[in-house]
Structures are given as structure tokens and as C-alpha cells.
Description:
The chain crosses the membrane at residues 44-60, 90-109, 116-137, 143-167, 179-198, 204-222, 294-314, 326-348, 355-376. The chain has a single domain (44-234, 271-432), classed as Growth Hormone, Chain: A (Up-down Bundle). Helix content is 63%, strand content 0%. The chain has helices at residues 24-30, 39-57, 67-72, 80-108, 112-131, 135-150, 152-158, 168-195, 201-219, 272-285, 287-317, 328-346, 353-377, 381-413, 425-428.
Amino acid sequence: MPGTASPSVSCRAVGGLGSMALSGLEVEKQVPADPRPGHKLQSWWSLAFCLCFYGFMSQMRPGESFITPYLLGPDKNFTQKQVTNEITPVLSYSYLAVLVPVFLLTDYLRYKPVLLLQGLSYVSVWLLLLFGSSVLHMQFMEFFFSITMAARIAYSSYIFSLVPPACYQRMAGYSRASVLLGVFASSVLGQLLVTVGGTPFSTLNYISLVFLAFSLVLTLFLKRPKRSLFFNRGAPACAGASPSELDPMNLGQVQPTGGKPGQLPASWRDSALAHMLRELGHTARLPQLRLWSLWWVFNSAGYYLIVYYVHILWNVVNPTTDTTRVYNGGADAASTLLGAITSFAAGFVRIRWALWAKLIIAVVTVLQAGLIFLMYKTSNIWLCYSAFVLFRGSHQLLVPIATSSSTLCTSWCCLSPMSLRPCCRACATSDRAATSPCRRPRS
């Protein structure tokens, strides 16, 4: 499930039960084939490239690593107590409040409008940072920032509507790496401007505002998908559209007689809400989806709390007034570079996740707990920076794996002809993965 910045594992759990009414031959005919060289392959590669470029540019915010020292410095002159107890907590609570509504709007409006909302919210954040002067202004700033975080589900879900199922794991790595590389470039730029150029924090925020305005313009040129997971399942596919998870999702869907494409069904059992509740129950019955969903919920909760407050911790460990000796941008750059490398590498990992997922999750979680304890106990800022880099990199390693594992399982296992009996062994158990059709099909 989304905590953040990133997509919910169970959000992409597409329904395969409706396809049980079809014969094995009919399902086999309707499941999209792997992409072949040609126009369609070039088309979705172009769309994926555009979306990854947008993901990179939307992260170009060189002032973000220095927001806390900016608020505590002479530009805003807030106290540490105000920042810690009155301003920063608004982000957590408002994020909780807007997460579900933004997710529903993402599906109902088919991604692009929510990306526009995200861009407008980013611009609002930096306008309030630059021109706000009270605690209330900063609280509104945190509220708009929570909207940008909740809207990240639009980007991470959108990428799967552009590519065929055989490419889910690789494209999850590509899209995640493009975002992290954008954060890396932004952090390096901000750190160089502060340390080498002696640029004031306020100037960094003006530069961030220019980048965000440009990414908002880029959003206008993104293609809007014709269908989505829940509210727009009945919309017709556009001519020449590339196969995606949205195609097998509709295998068992039958249009009502005389109904128009995209029209809401008359029966409540076919409504979007009922469909989402069925998918939630479907996810709870599959051990692999349940495992990754629970990991996403609890690990993301801890991850974002650390990311929210770590800059305040750094200010406590290293309370310097010399802005050229603040290396927050360097720490963010190193952590996101490591995260980008691990995310990209995760797209090429070929192991039996149904067998090894629990062990790997346990090892990574224990490592993260040790790094958090080290950050808490140390009084050395460089050791604190290093622990944060490893903590963030270890989290980013599992994000694309969690995304692609659940998506591939539901798309290729629960929608395959073999799913006419109870769902595949890799979804239902953890010891028979070698014979499971849930493995990535050959492209």
C-alpha cells in the first residue's frame, strides 16, 4: 500500500475472478502477447521515456534539502520547537487525511489530472516557503506538500498503463530510478550552490520554483490513458494502444446489453466500490500480496517518519550557523544515488521471491533498525549522514520489487488460463515457486 511518494502494492491487484467464466481457450486468446519489434513497441517505449523524463524533472528541487535550516535561519527565524512540534507534524496528519481521496481521484480521473494537481501543489509549497511569514503559512505549506506526496501514486500507477505485463518489473525499476536520479541531481546542484557558490537558501528556493513550473508545463503534454483500474474499466481501448495490465483486467467484464462503453453498471455488485472491496479481499487471501502489502505499510511508515525528521536531527547533531558547512544536500544526493542504483538493479534480479521474500525482508528490516539506532546515539554528523544513506538505499531496493512482484502475480497468474482453478502456487504458497506460472514470462 502506498505510504508515500510511492504506489500501493494492493492498489494494482487487478481482478482475475471475473475471467473464470471464460474458457481456457478464450482467455488464452485474449491475454495480450509479449511486445514484438514494431510501431507498438516503439510507441510505449516513447511514452515510458516521456513519463520517466517528467519524473526526473519533477524532482529538481535543489532547495528541498535545506528547508529545515531555511526555516530555522534568519530568513524565517522560526524556533526549533515551532518547526518540530507545530509545523512538521502537519505533514504526517494531512498526508493521512488526503491519501485515500487522492488515490480514488487518481483512478477516477485517469492519472493525468492528479499529476497536474501535484504540480500545482508543488508550486504552492514553494510560493508559501518564499512569501509566507507565519506558522499558519508554513502549516499550509506542509498541507500542500502532503498532497504532492499522496499524488505520487498517479505517477507510479501511470507507468503500468503504458507497458505490457512482461515489462512490469523492468519498468518499475526504470521509473523509480528516474525519480531517484532526479532527486540526486537536485541534491548535488543544491549542495554545490551552497558550499561552492555560497548561494543563500532563499535563492535555492527560487531556483526550485522555476524547475517546478517547468515540470508543471511538462505535465500538460503527457498522454491521458483511456482506462483505469476501477472507475473506468469499461472504456474502449484506443486504436493501436499497447497491451497493458488494463487489458487483461477486463477479460471477464461484459457490457450490459444496450449499454454504452464506459457507462456505470446498474448493479451495485459491478460498481467501482464493490470491485475495490473484492480486490481487497482477494489481496488478503494471497500470501505473497499480503506479505508485500504489510511490508509496504509498516516499512513506509517508518521510512517517511525518518525522512520527515532527519533534517531536524542533523541540526541538533551539527548546530552550525555557517551555511557553507551544512551538507544536507550531499547526504540526500548520496542516499538517492544508492537508492537509484539499487532500484535499477532490482529490475534485473531473478530469484524466486515467493521462496526468499520473507528472509530478505527480515534482513533488510533488521539492518534498517540498527541504522536508526545508530543515528539516534551518535554525535558525529558524518556517521549520522552515512547511516541515513544506507537506510534510504536499503528501502529503495525493495520498493520496485514489491511493486512488480504483486503486479506480475496478479496479471500473469490470476489472469492466466491456469487461474481457472485456485490461484497459482506462487501466490498461495512459498515453497512451490519453481513450478509456478507467476515467474516473468519470456519476452
